[in-house]
Write a structure and sequence with these properties.
Number of strands: 16
Catalytic activity: 5-amino-6-(5-phospho-D-ribitylamino)uracil + NADP(+) = 5-amino-6-(5-phospho-D-ribosylamino)uracil + NADPH + H(+); 2,5-diamino-6-hydroxy-4-(5-phosphoribosylamino)-pyrimidine + H2O + H(+) = 5-amino-6-(5-phospho-D-ribosylamino)uracil + NH4(+)
Largest sheet: 9 strands, mixed
Order of helices and strands: HEEHEHEHEHHEHEHEEEEEHEHEEE
Distance between the termini: 30 Å
Strand order of the largest sheet: 10-9-8-7-13-6-14-16-15
Binding site for Zn(2+): 54, 82, 91
Organism: Streptomyces mashuensis
Active site: 56 (proton donor)
Function: Converts 2,5-diamino-6-(ribosylamino)-4(3h)-pyrimidinone 5'-phosphate into 5-amino-6-(ribosylamino)-2,4(1h,3h)-pyrimidinedione 5'-phosphate.
Structural class: alpha/beta
Helix content: 10-25%
Number of helices: 10
């Protein structure tokens, strides 16, 4: 059974893992704390980017550089140590070679290719125990778990509105509904996402840039414009070179006015482009987390498709009374069909409130330590 010291170390490992958000795809975010034989912290690490050292390796290196002896110690890690060689070696073997005597992990690896690290550790005489703070660790790794278990990106819908739910005034003006503090927080969300998505209506109304600003070292997300009829103009800010851009259009759309632009052609539905086809295409491009920024029509389409995993609403203490709503038609015609949410956080940002909620049912549950592996592959 995990000790209080190991639980504290796991909380630290979860916080370390979060430092990799936005830079590790298609890999998971992972944090690790190595304790020496006396239960003292010897080294810490997290997975920084795909192809780079995994969290366990980073923590062991930190311990070695500090001159700490980890033989007989414990590795506390947010995800079961991997068990295969890709661009990096197996972490389970590295822990064994370092003389680690005990491994405590939060979430079992659901991949047959990389999973099974706990079994390898046990066969080498290392005690391995899973499930410590599994819910917390799984929430931090929701994008990767969604990718593995559902084969699509994890979708966060972000919107800004007045308290009466208006995203713009009756005359169409919308800058700025929320405060500078809220707008800065949106850049945090962008920095944590692999892709940022807007519809053509938002593009015409606001000419958004969608790149990350004010976040040192941030990896710029892929900017995606859902534009059925290819109405985006060559001078749009989203087409500059600040970040990569993908324009999703119908299969028969004329894109001759967009030479050099990365264009994705998708099947058309009665409501517009196929959202499942869009997500499939983005997943194939290693997009594991997607920030949906607007507008109301596109948000409604994502909700109607049942693919929104988290909602982040920035609510300004203002009233408009008229103007477009934050959400368009989501295919809900009666109160009995309302999409109910579980509010997981309410935070004040300047004068605004940021409300974070998850639709019920929520993201995939963490995989039990004893669960059978699923037929999918983990990237390295």
């Amino acid at each position: 059974m995990a000790t209080a010291t190991e639980a504290d170390a796991m909380r630290r490992a979860i916080a370390l893992a979060a430092r990799g958000l936005g830079s590790t795809s298609p890999n998971p975010v992972v944090g690790c704390v190595v304790l020496d034989a006396h239960g003292r912290t010897a080294g810490e690490g997290w997975h920084l980017r795909a192809g780079g050292p995994h969290a366990e390796i980073a923590a062991l290196r930190a311990a070695a550089e500090a001159g700490h002896d980890v033989r007989g110690g414990t590795a506390v890690v947010t995800l079961e140590p991997c068990n295969h060689t890709g661009r990096t070696g197996p972490c389970a073997r590295a822990l064994i070679d370092a003389g680690i005597a005990r491994v405590v992990y939060a979430v079992a690896d659901p991949n047959p290719v990389a999973g099974g690290g706990a079994g390898t550790l046990a066969a080498a005489g290392v005690h391995a125990e899973g499930g410590l703070l599994a819910d917390e660790a799984a929430a931090g790794n929701a994008a990767w778990l969604t990718s593995v278990l559902r084969r699509r990106p994890f979708v966060v819908w972000k919107y800004a509105a007045t308290l009466d739910g208006r995203s713009a005034a009756a005359d169409g003006t919308s800058r700025w509904i929320t405060s500078a503090e809220s707008r800065a927080d949106v850049h945090r969300l962008r920095a944590e996402a692999d892709a940022v998505v807007v519809g053509s209506g938002t593009l015409r109304a606001d000419d958004p840039h969608l790149a990350v600003r004010g976040r040192d070292g941030a990896v710029q997300p892929l900017r995606v414009v859902v534009d059925t009829h290819a109405t985006v103009r060559p001078g749009a800010r989203v087409l500059d070179d600040a970040a990569p851009t993908l324009v999703a259009v119908a299969e028969d759309a004329d894109t001759t006015h967009l030479p050099g632009t990365d264009v994705l052609r998708l099947p058309r539905t009665a409501a517009g482009l196929s959202i499942p086809a869009l997500l499939d295409a983005l997943h194939a491009r290693d997009v594991r987390s997607l920030l949906l920024e607007g507008g109301p029509t596109l948000a409604g389409a994502f909700l109607a498709a049942g693919v929104v995993d988290r909602v982040v609403g920035y609510l300004a203490p203002a009233l408009l009374g008229a103007g477009p709503a934050a959400l368009g038609d989501a295919g809900i015609g009666t109160i009995a069909g309302a999409l109910r949410l579980d509010v997981t956080d309410v935070t004040r940002l300047g004068p605004d409130l940021r409300v974070t909620a998850t639709p019920l049912p929520t993201v995939p549950r963490p995989v039990p330590a004893t669960a059978p592996a699923l037929a999918t592959a983990k990237e390295n």
